[in-house]
Amino acid sequence: MHTELQFKHGRDADIVVTGLTQQDGEDDKNVLSTFLEHELDLKPAVVHCKRLGRTTTQNSRPRPLLAVLDSSFNARLVLSAAKRLQDSDDPYMSEVASSSIQT
C-alpha cells in the first residue's frame, strides 16, 4: 500500500506536452526546459522526459512528450501558465497551445 501511494504521489509531477517537435541531436529534456523558460518564464527542473507512441514516417505530427518535473507544484504552475501560449504572437506557439499541455 505504501509503495502504491508513493508511486501515485510521484505521478502528480508528470505532464504530457503535445505539439513540441522532436529535434535531431537534441535532448528532449533540454528542449523542454528551454521552451518552458523562454515561452512561459518558468524554470522547473525537468527530471526525466520520454516520447510516447511509435515513430512513424506516415505521420508528421510530433509524438507526445511525457515529462516528469521536480514537484507537483511546478507541474501545476506549468499547466496554469500554458494557457498564456494561446495569446502568443508566434504562430507555432499558438499551435502548441491548442494542442495542449496536460497532466
How does this structure look, described?
The protein has helices spanning 2-10, 28-40, 72-82, 91-99; strands at residues 14-17, 46-51, 65-69, 101-102. It starts with a helix and ends with a strand. With 103 residues, it is of the alpha+beta class. The chain has four helices and four strands. It has a single domain (2-102), classed as Alpha-Beta Plaits (2-Layer Sandwich). Helix content is 41%, strand content 17%. It has a four-stranded antiparallel β-sheet with strand order 2-3-1-4.
Question: Helix content range of the residues, please?
Answer: 40-55%
The count of strands amounts to 4
Integer average pLDDT: 79
Q: How many individual helices?
A: 4
Name of the CATH superfamily: RRM (RNA recognition motif) domain
How many domains comprise the coordinates? 1
Poorly predicted segments: none
Per CATH, the class reads: Alpha Beta
Largest sheet: 4 strands, antiparallel
Q: What do we call the CATH topology?
A: Alpha-Beta Plaits
Distance between the termini: 23 Å
Cα gyration radius (Å): 14 Å
In the CATH classification, which architecture applies? Answer: 2-Layer Sandwich
